[in-house]
Amino acid sequence: MTTSVPATPAEQPDVRPNNPHFSSGPCAKRPGWSLDALRDGAFGRSHRAKGAKAKLAEIIERSRSVLGIPDDYRLGIVPGSDTGAFEMALWSMLGARGVDALAWESFGAGWVTDIVKQLKPDDSRVLEAPYGRLPDLAAVDADRDAVFTWNGTTSGVRVPDGNWIADDRAGLTFCDATSAVFAMDLPWRKLDVVTWSWQKVLGGEGGHGMLALSPRAVERLETYSPDRPLPKVFRLTKGGKLIEGIFKGETINTPSMLAAEDALDGLWWAEAIGGLPALTARSQANLDAIALWAEQRPWIDFLAEDPAHRSPTSICLKIVDPWFAALDPEVQAAVPKRIAALLEAEGVAFDINGYRDAPPGLRIWGGGTVETADIEALLPWLDWAFSNVRLDQAEAA
After folding, report:
1. Residue 87, CA distances (Å) to 140, 152, 153, 174, 244 in order
2. Domain locations in the chain?
């Protein structure tokens, strides 16, 4: 198939998204959000004061309720966003068994680097796949620890389910779920360590992470002492016992009560619209809208090769027009940047260029705080921007 370069660009659409925030992190605030939603925050108070501590504990319990986390799992607020939470888990628990580290995009590759080059366990395997694909999940050994992202934020590729994780596994599963929770139904009993951050699917503020631990993960913490120093913000045990206060709102370091109030606002909104089923339905509707549009466009496709692996949150697209394929790689990399810049200049979409380490393309956040009507309003603008950039490039050549 070939496409000719148009003599004139596509007509500019008449309808604009009401909210042009399609960034994949920090993500869009909930519909109707304003600073007034934070008026009852515990500002200017010690985070250890009764009222402030109660708010932190409320974040934990409401998160548990909305996500359906089992009662016997510990859930706490920790420093450093999702990155801090996952690093804390890796540095505190890896090394007791062999490790299978999975990577199919940049964040998974980052965990591989930490494991192979920093932690250096005696026995580690790396299971990799290129952008757009998953590694062989059947190759994961249930006797070993497994480290993986549930949703590849920079590739738009997610694991389809937890069927590949053995119920009778001896190893622990370490799951970075930051762009999956509140948008996908996770099989909690299959997951031993799960982390995420406030600034993703519920559109909260950055800087704080959430850490969920299964009873087996707690047992690992209390029976295994890694042969490495742990900084204070990574320490989950004292005297060989779990520090239970972390999982009751007694944070390791000082949290932002402004960010905490914002996290509570997102959780209240999630509950008000129907909880996790409503959130997953909203996210799926956004993916469905883009899928319907992409099926009718010869110039664009999903980066995820298997439709069952498409993410409904970090929706990653690649340009497949033959004109684009014929460009030099350096010029290819500039095309989505120019599309994103053109849409930003029009106030139509912010921050939708693909991730810097991913193949050139676009990345549109489709989590539950994004209205499907805004996605639908954005799509004709993508056609318009692509036709303009393609025409400009042809004229320049």
Report:
1. 21, 17, 17, 11, 19
2. 41-271, 275-396
**What span, in angstroms and rounded, lies between the C-alpha atoms of 112 and 103?**
7
Instruction: Enter the tokens of residue 85.
Output: 């939470």
The residue whose two tokens read 């360590």 is: 193
Return d(Cα 86, Cα 236) in angstroms, integer. 13
The first and second tokens of residue 146, run together, are 């497994």
The three-state (H, E, C) secondary structure of 331-385, written as one string? HHHHHHHHHHHHHHHCCCCECCECCCCCCCEEEEECCCCCCHHHHHHHHHHHHHH
Q: Quick check: 181 and 137 in contact, CB under 8 A? A: no
Separation between Cα atoms, residue 289 and residue 206, nearest integer Å: 28
By DSSP bridging, strand 208-213 and strand 99-103 are unpaired
Burial of residue 100 (CB within 10 Å: 0-12, 13-18, 19+) is buried
**pLDDT tens digits for range 330-370:** 999 999 999 999 999 999 999 999 999 899 999 999 999 99
Mean pLDDT in order along the chain per 10 residues (397 residues): 60 96 98 96 91 97 98 98 98 98 97 97 97 98 98 98 98 98 98 98 96 98 95 95 97 96 98 98 98 97 98 98 94 96 98 95 98 98 96 77
Return d(Cα 355, Cα 233) in angstroms, integer.
29
| Fold of domain 275-396 | Aspartate Aminotransferase, domain 1 (3.90.1150)
Q: Parallel, antiparallel, or unpaired for β 173-176 and 193-197?
A: parallel
Q: State the angle between helix axes of 50-67 and 275-295 in degrees (0 to 180), rounded to the nearest 10.
A: 60
Tell me yes or no: is domain 41-271 CATH 3.40.640.10.
yes
- Terminal Cα distance for the chain, rounded: 22
